[in-house]
Amino acid sequence: MKNMTTLQLFLDQKDRVEPLHIYYTFSERHKYIRNALYFLSYALEHNLNVLFLEEDTVYQEIRVQLLKTYSSEKVDTIMYQDSMQFYLNGKQFDADRNSEHVLSLLTPLLEKGEHILIWGQVLFPSENSLSQLRQYEMNCDKFISEKHITSVCAYNGLTIPAYVQTELLKTHKYFMTDDEVTISGLYQREHLQSFSDHDRKRIANIERKNRQLIHDNENLCEAYEIIARKKKDYWKLLKELPIPILISKDDTLVYANERALADLELPPFENIKGESIFNFIHFTDHFLEQKWINTLQSNQEFEMKEVELKLENDSIKTFKLKSIFTWYKESESILHVLIDLTPYKLLEKKMIRAEKLNLAGQLAAGIAHEIKNPLTSIKGFYKLIKYGMGKEKYFNIIDDELDRIEQIANEFLILSKPHSDIFKIHSISRIIEEVKTLLETQAIIKGNDIITSYPEEELLIKCEETKIKQVFVNLLKNAVEATKNGHIYVTVKKQLDFVDIIIQDEGCGISKEALSKISEPFFTTKEKGTGLGLLICDKIIENHNGMRSIESTEGVGTTFTITFPLTKGQQTYIPVDPILYNDLSTHV
Ligand code: ADP
Ligand code: MG
Known about the structure:
Blueprint: H1 7-12, E1 20-26, H2 29-45, E2 49-54, H3 56-67, H4 72-75, E3 79-82, H5 83-88, H6 95-111, E4 116-121, H7 130-147, E5 150-156, H8 162-169, E6 174-176, E7 181-183, H9 197-240, E8 245-249, E9 252-256, H10 258-263, H11 269-272, E10 282-283, H12 286-297, E11 302-310, E12 316-328, E13 331-340, H13 342-386, H14 392-416, E14 424-427, H15 428-445, E15 449-453, E16 460-463, H16 465-482, E17 487-495, E18 498-505, H17 512-515, H18 533-543, E19 547-553, E20 557-565, H19 578-587
Parallel strand pairs: 1-5, 1-6, 2-3, 2-4, 4-5, 15-17
Antiparallel strand pairs: 6-7, 8-9, 8-13, 10-11, 11-12, 12-13, 14-16, 17-18, 18-20, 19-20
Helix pairs in contact: 2-3, 6-7, 13-14, 13-15, 13-18, 14-15, 15-16, 16-18
The structure holds adenosine-5'-diphosphate (ADP) and magnesium ion.
Pfam family, one: MEDS
GO molecular function: ATP binding; phosphorelay sensor kinase activity
Protein name: histidine kinase
């Protein structure tokens, strides 16, 4: 290219008389050092005054090189200034202060008419310095031209923005890179005079836009940092949370945390990675499992409060399962949370049993009393018969009394029987009648009357008989304990697909404050109460997909309403929610 030459050739031009103001944008450090070294050597070689503005470390490196050729006295003739202190001095870049500073250093020499060389690496300090920088270079260009100075203004090409470079090329006649020097096509002599209004506005505009860009960039960096932090947190959560988590992508397992591998008794992750998730998660209920698979494959999330899974070693555990959409390694995936409920289920079973035994114990006294009466009359009539005073009707009385004893003993046994855990279809009115038998004595002792009413149609529910009886024994017992000389109404009503069992007493009622606590464990207002009865009733009702509500007024009485789904044959409508339908079909 025309006019192009290396710095060496350029300085060596014997016929060069005009001043040199070079804009140097460097990008390779070793070439920068080589060029600076050549510049200083040229000055020393020709006994010229040279001002060198650089960082101390760079200067020390160059000085070592110079000392290989020149004496230290000679090298010390270089006027060295630390560029950081020279240009910024802990403050903003100030064009006038800096150009005056250069002039004050050079004036004594210029007055003697000596030729001067300047090399300075100019620091571009902050976003607002373009106008200052340009003003500085304009000032420099002016006295460089007037005083016939040779000056290289070096800028770091890797950090200086292109818009600044473009502006600076207008104030330098020459443009230099690490390897070449050429004439700057943008150089404008009129800049030697002053900024035009138009120019000032234009630069202010550039600076404003640049500030906005820097601001946007900072926001982006911040957002990026937040995203990066969140990503890290997400990973940490997945790894450290003591909750079993699996992630699948297109049905394939892509992630499993330690807890999931342990709770689901799975082989090491490496061995199952990439396999279909449906290969190692098996429900005991195949119908439900198919539902889960279909739900996920039709891009819907899935949740199941309790589901039994059959593990590799054939053991069965109960889990809460939730499958939700998530992002994993930049693509849509499904995150499965599986919480092992097995220990809680065992605890719950134990609690239900303990409370049942407690109920049976409490009932025993009343039952003994109930059995004692018929026994006394049987004994009396037996004696009469023994001594030949028997009449036909005594046998009938003895038969009736024996039936009554048998009935009570049977009921008592049912309550004390271990849980069968088998859901069967039972008549709700029969269950209630049998529970009534157990509680009647206690009711009579307290002057209470238990009045039952049933619809004509026999209503059936699918349930565990002993557990449902346990619920009604506790509710009826609570009603009897709260009531004195009053009525206890037990009403069974059909409501579409459900049956309501309403237990209404005329007892002491429950205060508003106590009402919020009655289901809490160990809340009791009774001297010998356990405070576990209602809590266990709620658990059993929940396991039967039922509901419980309560209304109570102090001094008036309390009404409990229990609702259970009817067996399918008796339902007026089939429920539409597939998941709920599922739940019902498994348990009820
Ligand atoms: P417990 O009968 O051992 O006290 P429960 O859980 O069965 O335990 O009942 C908790 C409390 O709820 C009772 O102590 C009582 O204060 C209140 N409660 C329950 N049912 C009734 C009722 N029908 N009338 C008044 N209070 C009741
Ligand atoms: Mg109770």
